[in-house]
Amino acid sequence: MPSTVVIRRRARARSRSPPGEFGSARRTRPRLEEESGRGGQDGREGMVSSLPDDMLVEVFKRLSPLTDIVRCAAVCRRWRLLISGAGCLSAPPPHFGFFRNYCPSPLPPFVPTAGVGLDLDPGVLSVSRACGAVLVDCRSRRLLLRELGAGSARELKLLVCNPLGKTSVRLPSRYIAGHKVACCALVLGENAAFRVVVVLFAAAPDHFDILVYSSVASAWEAATGALKKSMNPRQGPSVVIGDVVYKLQTEDNYIMAVDVNKMTLSAVPLPNIGMLLFAGNHWIGKTATGRLCLFALREQLNLVVWVLEEPGKWVVPLAVNLRGLMNPATVGDLSHMKLSAKISDQLRGCKLVSFGGFCEGTGALFFVMADWVVVLNMTTWRMERLWRNTDESTPLGDVFPLEMMAWPPSRGNLVKKA
Q: Using alpha carbons only, what angle is made at residue 400 by residues 396 and 405, rounded to the nearest 5 degrees?
């Protein structure tokens, strides 16, 4: 039966005021009520629930995958099953966006490339704006930050942040005076568990310290060992394969390997790349099968990939020219711009190309081309420019990509609250 609308008027008290004056009884407006099987808000919910599955899927098709469909999947079990089983729903982009370190900013700013802002909240992180923090690692949608400020050279203050859940964990600080931080990496475990690995170099005598923090034990473990020679920490990316953290020592000919369980330190020699190494022209990552790989940019924008098949054995499975992957429809004017990976070519009017990051969750490579951040899908070999830096006072450096949640969403990885 169709719903009917009934106007009910509440009986008004007779005024006791003298003629010509306002009565003290409160006047009420007519109230509209929808009479249905349940009435009011429950009735509207019942009408939506009565829609057949195919009509609900058609509604879901017209929603944004990021902001709306995920929220709909958290409404009830029926909607969750519909969304997780509907292969016709449009998939979101592979990344929410990326963070980047920007010194004048108290916290690393987030660049949304999928329309969802995930800026860090100083209140959630409990970081003073006068101090700020820098991003040192990013993995599986969680961030590892180092707090700055007075005394940061003597004391190591780290935080692990979940920008999607708006939560953070502050680790117990460590006194590091007389040491240089060579590596800070985040190793994730099951559910919300994590470990943080820190490698310190020290002199007189030359030695290293390995610090491992466990969120399960809420405590640090420490181990030390001797260095054969004095070592200087280098900037470079890190990648986690199993229980081993690999850290590229930029401008050196080796990759640092830290076994988190055994708390040992070793070195993996680089292959014969045949070129001068400097920050930005080589990077590390891992394959879909979990093998360590090395990327290098040679002249004429040739991307060469080495894979560590076994200890001491590097193989070159592929080499591709990036210029041939530049489709004007996805990279715009970069397709005909003079680009080079050699710093000296800037004197000839070329714009510099360098590595910007690697996403372990999606296997995508990020580049900085001129003033653009560009992503390369290593599976489809599709290259796409994401964001342009228009502020010349803040040059682009490393980017820390934040991958999208698994799609379509399942009951195990859905957010419970909108």
A: 140
